[in-house]
Amino acid sequence: EPRSTCCCLAWTLLIVTINILVFFMNLLLLFVIFTIVLLPTIVVVYFGFQCHSKVLHSAARYCRSFLDDSSSSALIILGFVIMSPLIVAAMAIYCSLARRFHLLMCFQPYSRAVYKGVKWRWYEEGGLCRCARGWNTQVKAWV
Q1: What domain count does the chain have?
Q2: Is there a domain that residue 123 lies in?
Q3: What are phi and psi of 77, to 5 degrees?
């Protein structure tokens, strides 16, 4: 049966809050994975730009001793070349984690706020911790 207007608004606010928290948890996981996987690219491009005479031209010892403009340009190019496969690897890691832990299934539909007696999606599918039960390999993250 449908909820009253006040109750529906309160449940809608609760569901919106839960969905926003789940979204930011997914975003944080995505940010951490991309930062860790792309760290070599970040370091190589940073040193390339730092030691190039037309960009930052640092007075650091390693810039004067080891890196001239040609080697700085090579570092910049190398950093951007290795970025593409690392982005693909980072996205693959995130997608496998999201699928394994069912992260996208934590989002709740708004029908939970409109009708009484409707169970939460995570409760219907075995609870938040599915470790004790067998994993359902037929469940897709986008369903």
Answers
A1: 1
A2: no
A3: -65, -45
Burial tier of 50 (Cβ tally within 10 Å: 0-12, 13-18, 19+): middle
User: CA-CA distance, 18 to 141, in Å (whole number)?
Assistant: 18
Q: What is the largest CA-CA distance in the chain?
A: 76
Indicate yes or no: pTM above 0.85: no
Q: Domain for residue 5, yes or no?
A: no
Distance, in Å, from the CA atom of 98 to the CA atom of 141, rounded to the nearest integer, reads 8
Q: Which of 78, 100, 125 is nearest to 29 (CA)?
A: 100
Environment class of 142 (CB within 10 Å of its CB; exposed 0-12, middle 13-18, buried 19+):
exposed
CB count, 10 Å around CB of 36? 10
Domain that holds residue 78: 26-54+61-106
The band of 80, judged by pLDDT with boundaries at 50, 70 and 90, is: very high
What are the backbone angles phi and psi of residue 142, rounded to the nearest 5°?
A: -95, 5
